[in-house]
Amino acid sequence: MNPTIPKPAFDFLLKLKENNNREWMQEHKKEYLANEKVLKEFYAAVEKGLNVTDEIATTKVFRINRDIRFSNDKTPYNFHRSVSFSRAGAQRRGGYYLRLEPGNSYMAGGFFDPNPADLLRIRKEFEMDSSEIREILAQKDFKKAFGNFNQEYAVKTAPKGFSKEDENIDLIRLKSFFVNHRFTDKEIFAADFIDNLIHHYQLLRPFFNYMSDVLTTDLNGESVLVS
C-alpha cells in the first residue's frame, strides 16, 4: 500500500495560516507532531523510490519556523512543508524538491542559485552549443510536465562577459536552471500520488545527466573530477 499525504496535515496548515502565532502552535503541538511523523514517513518512501533509479545522499526537511531576522513579516511559521533530496557523489548534480501547501503544492528540480564557478561553466556551455539542452527542454513529456526553465531568476540584459546579442541569451541570462510542476490538492491526497511524484522526478533525469556532464568537465570535454 502506497504511503499518502493525510488530509489532516493540510487542515492543520490551513488553521496555522489563520493562527500564525506561538501560543496557537503550543496548544496544537501534539497535532503538529503527529502530522510531521506521517509526512516524514512519506518523505522516506519518496527517497526509497528515487533510489531505485538514482542515488540520494541526504533528505532535508525544512523547518516550519520562519527566519524572521531580516523580514518585515514577523509571523513565526511557514504554512507549508518542504523537503529536498540531494543526489550522491560529485558526478551526480541536481536536486529534487517538494512543497506541500493547500492550493499551492508543487515539485521542482534542477540547479537553484549555483555557485559562481558552476554558473559560469553552464553559461559558457550554452554560449558554445545550446542544441542539447534545447532538445531536452523540447522533449514532449518534459515540456508537457514542466514547460521551460523558471524565468524569475535572471539578469535583465546579459551577464558580464557575454553579449546581449548572443542567439542563446535567453538561456545565458538565467541565474538558476530549474523547472516545476504543480499538483492539485486532489492529486496530493490520491493513493497514487507518490507514483505520480516519482514519475515527474524521473522526467528530470535527462536534464540532470546533461548538466552533470557539463559541470564535471571543462569546455574541452575533459573531466575536472579528482580521481
TrEMBL record:
Pfam families, per database record: DUF2461
InterPro entries found in the cross-reference section: CHP02453 (IPR012808), UCP028451 (IPR015996)
Top-level division of the source organism's lineage: Bacteria
Protein name according to UniProt: DUF2461 domain-containing protein
Protein's organism: Aequorivita antarctica
